[in-house]
Amino acid sequence: MNEQIRAREVRLVGPEGEQVGIVPLERALQLAADVDLDLVEVAPMARPPVCKLMDFGKFKYESALKAREARRNQQQTVIKEMKLRPKIDPHDYETKKGHVVRFLKAGDKVKVTIMFRGREQSRPELGYRLLRRLESEITDLGYVEAAPKQDGRNMIMVLAPHRAVKASAVAATASRGGPRERAAEESGTPEAGETPEAGETAAAGETGPTAETSGQ
């Protein structure tokens, strides 16, 4: 008898989900032994506790398969960062915009940071115009999740992929047989005096269903 099943009576559920009714614990254990199954407590907080007749080994195996499948189809939440200067060179702008497009197509969010230096801090409208230009050029792929906001010497805007774009990225990931294994990526071509920043990853883990303890 499992030490966790302390009640004298249990509400017994058959292997096909049929309700057997409230029976003494000893009787439930005997029924489990008769059909060569385990007595598993599935609702210990119920009064009386609910127990089910099942093959516990098979249950754990199927639960592990479901958890693995869930992890395989899981889309990781990733935030990439792209840094620009308000007076960025047109070629550098196109290069960094290309990185933003690639990130959005992969289903990632992008934090776009405009860095002001010296007298540039007195011209925040330059950074605002640059962010609005970028927003208008990626509308097919994403939208502004967090509007441009001044943060000290920086101006920050967060872009997120459209739902359809993210769904396509998830489907592409699943078709490759597992979640993407990502290394931290640099934030595009660095300008003079600028150090490339790695992408910031914030992945939410997922846990599969937990099997109950066998009653036998």
TrEMBL record:
Cytoplasm: is it a keyword of this entry? yes
Extract the InterPro entries matched here. T_IF-3_C_sf, T_IF-3_N_sf, Translation_initiation_fac_3, Translation_initiation_fac_3_C, Translation_initiation_fac_3_N
**Do the record's keywords include NAD?**
no
Q: Which UniProt keywords apply?
A: Cytoplasm, Initiation factor, Protein biosynthesis
| Chain segments carrying region Disordered | 170-216
Q: What are the Translation initiation factor 3 N-terminal domain coordinates in residue numbering?
A: 1-70
User: MF terms per GO, please?
Assistant: ribosome binding; translation initiation factor activity
Name the Pfam families for this protein. IF3_C, IF3_N
| Composition bias, Low complexity | 189-216
Task: Tell me where in or outside the cell this protein is found.
Answer: Cytoplasm
**Domain Translation initiation factor 3 C-terminal: from-to ranges:** 78-162
One GO cellular component this record assigns the protein to is: membrane
**Any GO BP:** ribosome disassembly
Spell out the subunit comment. Answer: Monomer.
In the record, the note on similarity to other proteins reads:
Belongs to the IF-3 family.
Function in brief: IF-3 binds to the 30S ribosomal subunit and shifts the equilibrium between 70S ribosomes and their 50S and 30S subunits in favor of the free subunits, thus enhancing the availability of 30S subunits on which protein synthesis initiation begins.
Q: Which HAMAP family match?
A: IF_3
The name under which this protein is listed is Translation initiation factor IF-3
Question: What organism does this protein naturally occur in?
Answer: Micromonospora globispora
